[in-house]
Amino acid sequence: MRDPLHLRPVQFVDSPVGRDGAVARLAGGMLWFAAYDVIEGGRRRTVPITALADLLVDERAARLHARITAPRAAMTLGERTLRFDQPSVAAILNVTPDSFSDGGTHGQDPAAAASAGVAMAAAGAAIIDVGGESTRPGAQVVWEGDEIARVVPVVERLARSGTLVSIDTRKAGVMEAALAAGAAIVNDVAALLWDDRALEVVAGAGCPVVLMHSPDPAGGGHGAHRYDNVLTDVFDWLEARIDAVVAGGVDRTRIIVDPGIGFGKTLAENLALLNGLAIFHGLGCPILLGASRKRMIGALSNEAAADARLGGSIALALKGVEAGVQLHRVHDVAETVQAVRVWRGLRDQALVAG
Q: Who's near 220: CB < 8 A, 6+ residues apart?
């Protein structure tokens, strides 16, 4: 059996003007590309869009191309609409004592935590991602009741303020409680594999869900793993997981994918994923990138502490933006929003100028 074919959009251009038939639009967004990096059987070749007809005779290639170029439908979530035709920011709001970067920031004060979330929304965050359990390497598992007690009062306050909230959890009971409190999205680093009831809860709620890759989701996400090719291995894992979640009753249009930067991956593997991010558009789902303040930034910058990784975090967010990533999960909201807005201004000018 041959290795499955993969397509990664490459050769991005400033504008499609004057390039009819020579470029394709990426996921209905603000980027156009002129060729594919075709990965098959351990080999790579470049196929320009002008020579696409021969490639698309292959059924899998045709399916991937259709997914890569199809616009991502906006999600209507109550009174809020989450769009994927331009990059947006999801703000990290941890109500934990031990998260690797901001643990203990808000203590046990839900009002202060919610106020911080509202401020991040005012600074430009499209989503506030509330978490009550650290998933850093070596973190202790939090009892479900304690996690609910941490997150529900914060979610309730944010939802009442009109803020769009996602709940960052692996546990079905926490998902149920947070959704009942007003959360609209489930963000699960275990891709609904930690808790046997998680898929049932998400399917029953009909809510969007973020499925993140890790090599051992049932074991905490940070186990060592040997990848043959980290880019295509992670793609294939997410592809299979999407199919399983859809078979379990979740609408494919409600799924967001996350390649899981930092979870069970070496520095070299994380860098390979970031360099190849555009491949994940072949899954046909919006992409979330969570690289903010990750340990890889310290590894590349004289072991900078977690709270001294702003520059690296912005660099990785912009790397994702340039690859068409739609959602960026970050700690430093105002700074990232500003960077994205400047990028957007550059793109607008390029498109207008042709």
A: 135
Mean pLDDT of 138-142: 79
> pLDDT tens digit string along 219-230?
765 667 789 999
Note if 329 is an active site residue. Answer: yes
Residue 116: both structure tokens together:
């911080």
The answer to whether residue 252 scores a pLDDT higher than 60 is: yes
Q: What is the CATH number of domain 75-353?
A: 3.20.20.20
d(CA 297, CA 35): 30
pLDDT in tens, 145-190: 999 999 999 999 999 999 999 999 999 999 999 999 999 999 999 9
Domain coordinates in residue numbering, the chain: 6-69, 75-353
Q: Which of 329, 341, 344, 347 is catalytic?
A: 329
Q: Is the pTM of this model over 0.90?
A: yes
Options 294, 309, 319, 341, the catalytic residue: 294
DSSP per residue, 48-82: EGGGHHHHTTSHHHHHHHHHHHSPPPPEEETTEEE
Q: Residue 265 carries which side chain, given as an amino acid letter?
A: K
Q: Would residue 43 show up in a list of annotated catalytic residues for this protein?
A: no
Q: How far apart are CA 177 and CA 172, in angstroms?
A: 9
